[in-house]
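Hi P.,

Sorry for the delay on this. The queue was packed all week, but I finally got your sequence through. Input first:
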Amino acid sequence: MKSRFCLFVLWSSCLAAQTFIQAAQNGVTASTAVTVNINTNSGNAVVVWCTQGANNTSTLTITDSASQTGWAQTSSGYASQGTSDRSAIFYKSNSAALTSVTCTWSGSLSATLGATVFELAGIASSGAEDSSVNSGQATTTTATSGSLSTTSARDILLFAVRWSGAVTSPTAGSGYTLPANATSTRTTMEYKIVSTTQSAVTTTLTWTNSVNDANIFAAFKAATVAPTGLSKQRRYEQVDR
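Then the structure:
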């Protein structure tokens, strides 16, 4: 019997560092569509939070300046508080460079619409959503999310809120960031980047005057990146023949 030593080289995958790039928003009245102007970079993810104050039945179509298809809705579905509002999060991973994103609602509604758009880097190019839930409260100064659990060790958490009326002094929940240009008359979105899996977590967003709110709490996974020399492992094993 001869003994030989064989070299096995193992490569471990790495998760990208997620980065918030920018936010933009817009709000309109007596309309079926709202457009947000934003100049994004090719390859980044684009997330849009679209809201309307007419009914809880209209459906949403997302279009953009690059005429892309494949915008995905989060598994949370639509969020409503009562029968006169509806909101949703859609996203496009590995997006083309854009100059605008448009939310168009079905039906002949003429409503107050809002939209907030985030550009994010380091998001998975496929299967980007980790988890999402929707919730809502009546006559409150605090939006409280549903309970969210994740499977990925590195996520960016987004908490999107729609108000039934104008509010003052919106304030991010503990550990979250409410970025510049994220808040319109009726919509806003905050974020937090985490490096461990989350179990039954919630978050909040507060303001000073009582209104109804509908919200979605969503987590998006980090991209997997090519390994570096630091993640290469060598293992020698004896093989007897």
